[in-house]
Model the fold of this input.
Amino acid sequence: HQAQPGKRDEVRRVWEKHVKPRVEANPAHEAYFFCYDDNDPDVICVFQLYTDMASMQDFLKGAWYADYLSEVSQFIEAQPQISPATLVWAKGFNIQNSHGRSRGD
Done:
């Protein structure tokens, strides 16, 4: 998220209202990181790991997501960018894929 100047904490409050509780309740979220960029006081970086692509798509299709975008839009410069990626390796996480093999070993 690219917040409007000085509005990053407002973005976080909207995120905590709409997104955080749904992530906490969503078993398809294997990991979720909400981070403040140390080099830009108006940037938030989010990294999410879902069990699969369909789970990500289902999560973002919820009616609540449109409400989130509507409310957060008053504090951001542009809509959030979503860039799907495949986890190849990670330190500190032992995440099982659908075949029972560990990713991040």
